[in-house]
Design goal:
This protein is α+β, with helices and mostly antiparallel strands and 198 residues long. Helix content is 34%, strand content 30%. The chain has a single domain, classed as Imidazole glycerol phosphate dehydratase, domain 1 (Ribosomal Protein S5, domain 2), CATH 3.30.230.40. The protein has a 4-stranded mixed beta sheet, with helices on one face. It has a 4-stranded mixed beta sheet with strand order 5-6-10-7, covered by helices on one side. A two-stranded antiparallel ribbon has the order 8-9.
C-alpha cells in the first residue's frame, strides 16, 4: 500500500501544492518563498527519508507568518492522510541530534491526538528570512494538523541557525522512526484500543 498524500490548499493568503511520500528516499523539491523555511523542510525530507514536493505562493504575507502556518497545516494534514489507519507502524519515535554546539531532543507519538510542548529559546528575532518565533508556531501547527504528540526541546546552543536546524533534523529522525512499518505488528494497530483515531 502506498503511503502517499497530496494536498492542494488555497486561501486568500497562500496557495499550496504538496505531495508527501512516507516511503521515499529523501528526495525533495521545495519552494515556499522563504529560503530558511525551504532549508528546514529539506532537512525534514532528507533525514526523515520522505519524498516531499512542495510549492507555496503567498499573495498577502508581509512577515512570513501566513506561509509558515499554512505550510505546517498542509504538511500535517498530508502526514496524517498518508498514514491512513496507521496499521503496522512503530507509532513512537525519539532522537537527539547535535549540530556543533547545539543539541535538540524530539519525541513523537502518532497517537491521533495533536499536542505540542516546545522548549526553544532564540537570541535573535530571525534566522535569515525566518522569524524565530515562527519555529514554535510551525511545530505546534504541524502536530495539531498531523494529529500527533510532539515534545521538542533545544537543550543547548549558541548559534540560532544551528539550534533551528538540529531541531528540524531531530524531528525528521523521530518521525522516520515513528512512521516505519514494524513487521511484527503485521496488519495490527499499535494501540490496546485496537485503533488510532485520525
Amino acid at each position: 500500500m502506498e503511503r502517499v498524500a497530496k494536498i492542494e490548499r488555497q486561501t486568500g493568503e497562500t496557495a499550496i501544492d504538496l505531495e508527501l511520500n512516507l516511503d521515499g528516499s529523501g528526495r525533495h523539491e521545495i519552494s515556499t518563498g522563504l529560503v530558511m523555511l525551504d532549508h528546514m523542510l529539506a532537512q525534514l525530507a532528507k533525514h526523515g527519508v520522505f519524498d516531499l514536493t512542495l510549492t507555496c505562493t503567498a499573495s498577502m504575507d508581509p512577515d512570513g507568518h501566513h506561509t509558515v502556518e499554512d505550510v505546517a497545516i498542509a504538511l500535517g494534514q498530508a502526514l496524517n492522510r498518508a498514514l491512513g489507519d496507521k496499521q503496522g507502524i512503530t507509532r513512537m519515535g525519539h532522537t537527539a541530534v547535535p549540530l556543533d554546539e547545539a543539541l535538540s531532543l524530539v519525541t513523537v507519538d502518532l497517537s491521533g491526538r495533536g499536542y505540542a510542548h516546545i522548549q526553544a529559546n532564540f537570541r535573535a528575532q530571525s534566522v535569515g528570512d525566518l522569524q524565530t518565533d515562527l519555529v514554535r508556531h510551525f511545530l505546534e501547527t504541524l502536530a495539531r494538523e498531523g494529529k500527533f504528540n510532539l515534545h521538542a526541546e533545544i537543550v543547548r546552543g549558541v548559534n540560532d541557525h544551528h539550534k533551528v536546524e538540529c531541531l528540524f533534523k531531530a524531528l525528521a529522525r523521530a518521525l522516520d522512526s515513528a512512521t516505519r512499518i514494524d513487521a511484527r505488528i503485521g496488519e495490527g494497530v499499535p494501540s490496546t484500543k485496537g485503533l488510532i483515531e485520525s
